Structures are given as C-alpha cells and as structure tokens.
Amino acid sequence: MAGLLQSAGARSVKVVAATDTLRQPTSLVTTLHWLLTGRREPFLWFGRAGVGDTELARVASAGRCIAESGQCPQSAAPIVPSLAAADLLAGTVFRRWGVTVRSVRRLGPLAHAASLATFVLGLGIGIVVGMPLIRCAALACGARFDTAVSDFVRRRISFGKAAVYEVAVS
Questions:
Q1: Is residue 104 helix, strand or coil?
Q2: Given this model, what pLDDT does residue 71 score?
Q3: What's the half-sphere exposure (Cβ side, CA atoms, 13 Å) at 133?
C-alpha cells in the first residue's frame, strides 16, 4: 500500500496502526467467515469480523490529531513481530494467489471455483500450520527475530525513510 501511495504522490507523515482486538482464535473464525461469505456481521457466538468500532474511532481520532497539529502522543500500539511476520507472509501469498485466481478465471467457472477452493483450503492450512511455525521461529531467535521483523515493517510503512511514528490516542 505504501508503494501505491508513494507512486500517487502521497507523502508519509505518520503511521497509525489499527488492530483487530478480538482474541486470535475468534479473529481467525470471523475473518474466514467474512472471506467465505462476504458478511462481516456477527454469527453464532462470534463477534463481527475485522477491526472493531472502538478501534476505528481511535484511529479516526489519531488521524484528526495528526491533520490538525502534526503531533500525537507516543504509541500505544507497538508492532507485534510474530503477527507482523504472519501478515507480511500472508500478503505475499494473497498477491500470488490473486494473480492465479484471476488468470484461471478465463478457463471457465469450474476452473475458477477450483482455484478459489484451493486457495481457501491453503489459507486454512497456512494459518493452522504457519502461525505456530512463526511463533517457534520467534521463540528460537528471540530478540533478533523481533528486531528484524520490526525493522522490516518500519521500512515498508515509512516509504523507506528512517523516521516512523506509531501513534495512538486514547
């Protein structure tokens, strides 16, 4: 996203992080439900998928603060390296699968449906297997893992500039 914004002439001023505040297993279920059905609203005993209203209000408030003064309080939403690593890997996989699914569409509806089904199956397996593997890597490498992932994320979200601000308004 940062690259697209930069190519459109945008300049990075600050970074505001929004997080899904649901527990990870609940977030997994609600996100998969949203992905498969296109519906974000609550189902069964699970809440609504995606970032919640309270978190969205916090981000909007931080945005207003940045727009008005260019300054905001120190971060209350630091980078969580294991989740950031999972997001980075998932983004790469999503882009590649997106290209595949779009190209298979020309082969007909059956091939398109099969590619989507394969993607969803792969996504589920990737989450169930990938998250524990990333967590093991984080535990095995300790601070080096955290530093490497955090530095990579900061470079990606800051258009390559050294200064990155993570801000939150309570």
A1: helix
A2: 63
A3: 8
What pLDDT digit, counting tens, does each position of 8-60 carry? Answer: 877 666 566 777 777 777 877 888 788 778 888 888 888 888 788 888 888 78
Give first-to-last CA distance, the chain, whole Å.
Answer: 26
3-state secondary structure of 160: coil
Q: Which residue has the tokens 């290209």?
A: 99
Distance CA 87, CA 93 (A): 10
Q: Are 144 and 151 in contact (CB under 8 A)?
A: no
Rounded Cα–Cα distance for residues 50 and 170 (Å): 20
Task: Give yes or no for a contact between 2 and 91, defined as CB atoms under 8 angstroms apart.
Answer: no
**Mean pLDDT across the stretch 117-124?**
83
**DSSP track, 39-50:** --S-BTTB--SS
Please, what is the angle between helix 24-37 and helix 109-141, to 10°? Answer: 160
- Give Dmax over CA atoms of the chain in angstroms: 54
Higher pLDDT, 141 or 162: 141
DSSP element (H, E) containing 149: helix 143-157
Kindly report, residue by residue over 80-90, the tens digit of the pLDDT.
Answer: 788 788 878 88
Contact 102, 166 (CB under 8 A): no
